[in-house]
Amino acid sequence: MKPIMSKSDAAAHVDSARIRQGRTWAELADHLGTPLVWTTAALLGQHPMSAEQARSVCELLGLGEDVSEGLTMQPSRGTSAEEMADPTIYRFTEALAVYGPALKALIHDEFGDGIMSAINFQVDFQRREDPDGDRVVITLDGKFLDYQW
Fold first, then answer.
1. pLDDT tens-digit series, residues 7-38
2. Structure pTM?
3. CB–CB of 134/110 below 8 Å?
4. So which residues are the catalytic ones?
5. Packing angle between helix 36-43 and helix 25-32, nearest 10 degrees?
6. Which DSSP string corresponds to the chain?
7. pLDDT in tens, 81-91
8. Is-contact 32 56, C-beta < 8 A?
């Protein structure tokens, strides 16, 4: 019996096919009818996809059932130390290092003692034109979870 393809291998196949066909992540999300950031994360191996979603995107990209099967598997979420050192990803770490304490204080001020969920969570990504250079707009939208004693 052949082992199930790993999520990272399936992700590599998806990304290669996407690049070779000149497709964008937005096109894949539109094809699936799913949110852009979630779709991109799922196709990069951070979320399991339904069998229907995986089959649909693999048909679009001309990929086999082995890739589709890998996309449905439960992930081991996270980012490697090598990826964390990437300048784009590192800037998110830097932004949270600078603004994290202020955001925590504001959450406590507005909501009380608790946290923002990263499970009941949505992320939105947009490009906004600006005369001084286009802006990256990222919205983190998490449910407030209060500490219950």
1. 999 999 999 999 999 999 999 999 999 999 99
2. 0.86
3. no
4. 91, 94, 117
5. 100
6. -PPPPPHHHHHHHHHHHHHHTT--HHHHHHHHTS-HHHHHHHHTTSSPPPHHHHHHHHHHHT--HHHHHHHTSPP-----HHHHTSHHHHHHHHHHHHHHHHHHHHHHHHH-SEEEEEEEEEEEEEEE--TTS-EEEEEEEEEEEE---
7. 888 899 999 99
8. yes
Domains of the chain: 7-71 (1.10.260.40), 81-146 (3.30.1160.10)
Nearest by Cα to 61 from 24, 7, 34: 24
> How far is Cα 138 from Cα 140, in angstroms, rounded to an integer?
7
Asked if 113 and 146 count as a contact pair (C-beta separation under 8 A), the reply is yes
Quickly tell me which residue has 């799922």 as its tokens: 42
CA gap 92, 97 in Å, rounded: 9
**How many residues does the structure list for the chain?**
149
Q: Each residue of 31-57: pLDDT tens digit?
A: 999 999 999 999 999 999 999 999 999
Q: Which tokens in the block code for residue 54?
A: 């995986």
